[in-house]
TrEMBL record:
Signal peptide: none annotated. The keyword Protease applies. This is Xaa-Pro dipeptidyl-peptidase. Its EC number is 3.4.14.11. Removes N-terminal dipeptides sequentially from polypeptides having unsubstituted N-termini provided that the penultimate residue is proline. It catalyses: Hydrolyzes Xaa-Pro-|- bonds to release unblocked, N-terminal dipeptides from substrates including Ala-Pro-|-p-nitroanilide and (sequentially) Tyr-Pro-|-Phe-Pro-|-Gly-Pro-|-Ile. It comes from Limosilactobacillus secaliphilus. Belongs to the peptidase S15 family. It comes from the Bacteria. Residues 537-794 form the Xaa-Pro dipeptidyl-peptidase C-terminal domain. Homodimer.
Amino acid sequence: MKNNQFAIVPTDLATKKQELTRLHLLQDGDQDLSAKDLWLTLLTRINPDGHTAAADQEWKNGLLATPDLSIEQWAQSNSALTTDVFYLVALQLLHFEPALDFAIDQPMAAMKKINLPFEAHDQWDVGAVISAFYLLLNTSTKNGQNLLDRLTVAGLFTWTFDLPASQKPLFFNGKPMACFDPEKFIREAVYVETDMDTDNDGHADLVKVEITRPQDTNHGLKVPVAFTASPYYQGTNDQWGEKITHHVNETIDRKEKNDVAPSEPHFNLDFDRQTVNGHADQATESFSYQPSYSLNDYLAARGYAVVISAGIGTKDSDGLQTCGSPEQVDSMKAVIEWLHGDRRAFTDRTSGIEVKANWCNGNVGMTGRSYLGTLSTAVATTGVAGLKAIVSEAAISNWYDYYRENGLVMAPGGFQGEDADVLAAETFSRTKRPADYRRIESTNNAYMKGLLLAQDRTTGNYNAFWARRNYLPNVDHIKCDVMMVHGLNDWNVKPSNVKHLFDALQEVDVTKKLILHQGQHIYINAFQSLDFSAMVNLWFANKLWGVANQADELLPDVLVQDNAHEQTWTPYHNWSGNHETTLNLTNNSLTAADVHDHAQVDYQDQQDDAVYKEWCKHPAKWSHALLNDNDGHFSAHFLTAPLKSDWLLRGMPMLNVRMAASVDHGILSAWLVDRGTDKRLTTSPVVLGKGTLQEAYHYGNDDLREFQFQKEATPAKTISYGHINLQNRHDASTVDDLKPGEFVDVELPLQPIFHTLKKGHQLELILFGTDYGMTLRGNEAIRYQIDTYNSSLIIPDDQQ
């Protein structure tokens, strides 16, 4: 294991003493002890199973203080406390195993190799013991949780559950502890009134909001909120989505400049609001089941109220599912306005009894991945009061970049045939209440027909439908601080989404943090090598509790997981490199040297019928064939020479190609490939422990995960890609003419990268037509020609 921690707050000795005293770990008279006796006393107090002197003695007899003596044996000797003794014991407390994880005669070598924080002292006095012990509590154990959290999970601090509300939360090292009893959480539901009527029934849409909050909030404690906007939360219609999934085995059509899609259906603007018939101090409805999101479980035990809403068009709410539209965003914004005290909510759907979020301190942070993170980003662009911070993971910033690309209908990786209407159907969970659905069925059907036409699968152009779902033009409205998390190998929500958002935020006066991991479309809060949950706790403690904990300074501006080394996370100040390398194309190579030959390379896009059908059925076989199409049957390959040293590529590559198609329409697709036989990180994290991560005492669990090198070497890995319709050479909304055989210049930005190309590897560019995993698959007889002399690839990198 290699540890990477960023949420440890530098703390002075006086504060360390205060915080340890608050936890009853440091007590009256302790500082009069010798350094050795104080250390032994502190060790005894963190034994969660020790209730008698005999039990404590047995516990210490099970831990080594030296290679030959247990702690109990060493305690009887005249030996003084040393750095080696302290950290040999520390490694065992952190659940590292002797012989397997470290050598018992070299504890400090292990501390350095695992990258664990430590304090070395020539002479250990009382202050040194207190300081090092405090740091040890903040140090990650072998399962990625810090020692304090492991002791909390073991029940050492359950006495904090009974503290008066006025003394909560307990903060340790700038972060709230899990001092709230999950068995006494209050679970309640309210109905927030929106400013819209998307189901056109003449009444303002109500959205159901489910709340989990500490019991202490009934006794005067006001807490911040971790709000997750999840259209999936009330259930999904997977079979509905499968039924209307679009056929993709069809040709792209030639476009005309006057091809314009119909407008999206409009919603009723004349509607009534509910009459207030009274007020209640608390909600009257509750709920029994809440799908687990382990980061929210972690936060709930630490005093954050967890609020979840599925928004309009979902079970127990009004309205229609509109897939990322301003209406859906405003329905989630309305929840924050209620939490902040600026909007009405009711105890139920019909009585008109208003209820306020009197238990909330008015500060809200948003969490969630994919659609959930997308809505976090979208709501942030409204500038709504009360939203102080978001943690948006794998989030869409522009829905066009999710379902389209440069004038092409484009599938999210792994979901060929999905589109906005399919997602709307899948998340329209009002179907889960049959009588409610019958009342709204005809209205929803009419809207879905209009949605299908407005999204325009015919041309794939950028239009008004997609403009309403593009949040980037409103980034300057963001007032909250933003933490973005994204996978560099996420082919579902492609990395360009977060790159465009991150770049746009550079001109906005808010704090912005970016974490890039080597995963696909995943959460990273249960990784062994990174203290992500603690980082979020630090972030929210600063933004929502108002704790001066140096979060902005401690958390890196850009944090990147290394692809060339296991469990390595490196801080940077920005994404893009400080340099660009231009590579010219020749017959079959990429070179930084000047090119003088006017070679042309051509390839065709049509396959034998049997091959075509097989690739449509199994796109992985197509991608394997593409990587191995060395004869250039249906692609063109260009490689650099083997690298003489490692090369860090960082930013958005730009491909410039002069090319022609044999017909009056066509596709240019491109892959960038790391070519070189090597063991690479697994495409998905490996589960190291099933359900082994508890979030608090008897509450919440998750699988411990980590990326590891594959057991077998692979010859290549695709690291970036891009696609463009040859009739959208200037932008996605403008149709250009294309004549058969006419050479045109095409500029194609590829997906952004942060990738180390290792010594001896080669960078490969592959140009082709149909992408069987993402584009339409018409198997049309088109031949493409590349003018290599007028083509180049620009790679952002670090100056070598």
